């Protein structure tokens, strides 16, 4: 109930989506706990968008800026958002990226809390190995960095190709400045990451000021043999009577 109320308050600010109604009901017999249902208007998730569309440079930078803004607003309200992943990020009609699900942990109780299993995903920071792992204030930044990593790596995550505890390789399609921002967010050691979402957001703003960002795809579209054939102009030779 506290999380639901927090989401209601945050949705009046920027970065989070509102919901129209909610219901909390006990789980079925022999199960302990409650099911929480939130009803909201349908909006396409970032996960579905990235499966069918090419991310552009402008999309990716705006995604990073919107996430940093949302995570900073969440912290100012006394919460850390611990379930950041593409399925929980939605795109509005104004092409803004907003968080639309529960996943809050109180900052005051962070050092005493554990990460619930339902919030664990491939975007969870590597130091959170199990329910007994200590939490820290950079797990949201790690998830935001990994989502940006995916955007600049043709939709792929490096999880299976990197030994736990080792730095990630640069994303395949990020320039060195963007790669530095992303890899700092995804550093194996929490102390080496951005310590506040606004720090990461300011780095993205500075990147935009120096380099700009346009709507060209990060990964160039693949040209098939059929497409290539259609692009080749057909040369014709006029035949006339002498």
What does this structure look like?
This protein has 242 residues and is an alpha+beta fold. The protein is built from seven helices and six strands; from the N terminus they run H-E-E-H-H-E-E-E-E-H-H-H-H. Strands 1-2 form a two-stranded antiparallel ribbon. Strands 3-6 form a two-stranded antiparallel sheet. Strand 4 and strand 5 (97-99) form a beta hairpin. The longest helix has 20 residues, at 57-76. The relative contact order is 0.14. Residues 234-242 have low confidence and may be disordered.
Write the layout of secondary structure elements.
Blueprint: H1 2-10, E1 21-26, E2 34-39, H2 46-52, H3 57-76, E3 79-81, E4 89-91, E5 97-99, E6 104-106, H4 139-151, H5 176-185, H6 197-211, H7 225-231
Antiparallel strand pairs: 1-2, 3-6, 4-5
Summarize the structure.
This protein has helices at 2-10, 46-52, 57-76, 139-151, 176-185, 197-211, 225-231, and strands at 21-26, 34-39, 79-81, 89-91, 97-99, 104-106. The protein is an alpha+beta fold.
